[in-house]
Write a structure and sequence with these properties.
mainly alpha, globular, 279 residues, 0% strand, 13 helices
């Protein structure tokens, strides 16, 4: 079972919780109907993302065999046969399609399809095009948020959009920077990047994320949410510290391996919940 969970990249489902952001910040998280739709959307997105991970691993089997970490992945290590992996990929896509048909939301369906198409294009070659590769990585986070808004009929704030896009660009740049420093990754696109370029753009995006978040808090229903700005900045500082340390830069790995960062995230979530739903 462990090898199949690894193939599906279950731990990366944490990124799909972005789908709940529009509903949560709209103050409607206790609307049962909308919450159920968000949960179903979450499941659909998890299936699509797993299918994409399987496709990437299938195409990169030979490269992954020469990577110190990726060689342990189920396909590269031979724990799962490629034919079996492709069957699982098709099943994941079928489940996602079935859920989308049930939800009957055309904008959400288009968003999910866009995510799939972009990532297939990424796997087929765009991952080797500098800047475009990072833009596609960042677009995945943005699409998740808008998808969450579509399935719950919640309008996504323009400031939330800016927070997500600049924050995800920062994470994408950080991932490429650490891959470049480690010098163990087999990505062709790394030869187009250098540390100074990635550093400069990382911290432009980091600063913009802080600014956009501050502006976003001013339009939220409780003006006391502005009190969370320092906490938000500290969370990003902690993340930045991890990225600058001994890390491969992958957002999920960074978050899951830092208990302090997780604790800060939980404190932030509790603060927002209290300010949105109790005051």
């Amino acid at each position: 079972m462990k090898k199949y969970l690894s193939l599906l990249r279950v731990k990366h489902y944490i990124k799909n919780f972005l789908i709940f952001l529009p509903l949560f910040f709209s103050g409607q998280i206790f609307d049962v109907n909308k919450l159920i739709r968000s949960v179903l959307g979450f499941m659909a997105f998890c299936m699509v993302s797993s299918a994409i991970y399987i496709l990437n691993d299938y195409r990169d089997i030979d490269k992954d065999k020469n990577h110190p970490k990726k060689k342990h992945r189920p396909l590269a290590s031979g724990d799962i046969k490629p034919s079996v992996a492709l069957v699982i990929m098709v099943i994941c896509l079928a489940i996602a399609i079935a859920i989308s048909i049930y939800l009957r939301n055309i904008p959400a369906g288009i968003s999910l399809l866009l995510y799939l198409v972009l990532n297939i294009a990424y796997s087929l070659g765009l991952k080797n095009v500098p800047i475009i590769d990072i833009a596609i990585l960042a677009s995945g986070f943005v699409i998740r948020v808008f998808y969450g808004g579509f399935i719950t009929d919640v309008v996504v704030s323009k400031w939330l959009y800016l927070v997500i896009i600049t924050g995800s660009l920062y994470m994408g740049l950080g991932k490429r920077k650490n891959e470049l420093i480690a010098s163990t990754d087999t990505r062709e696109v790394l030869k187009h990047y250098n540390k100074n370029f990635l550093d400069k753009n990382m911290y432009v995006c980091l600063a913009l994320t802080d600014v956009f978040y501050a502006l976003w808090t001013f339009e939220l229903p409780n003006d006391k949410i502005t009190w969370t700005i320092p906490l938000f900045i500290i969370i990003l500082m902690r993340y930045s510290l991890d990225v600058e340390g001994d890390s491969d830069g992958d957002p999920v790995e960074v978050i899951l391996h830092d208990k302090v960062l997780i604790a800060l995230g939980l404190i932030y979530a509790v603060c927002i919940f209290v300010l949105l739903y109790w005051f």
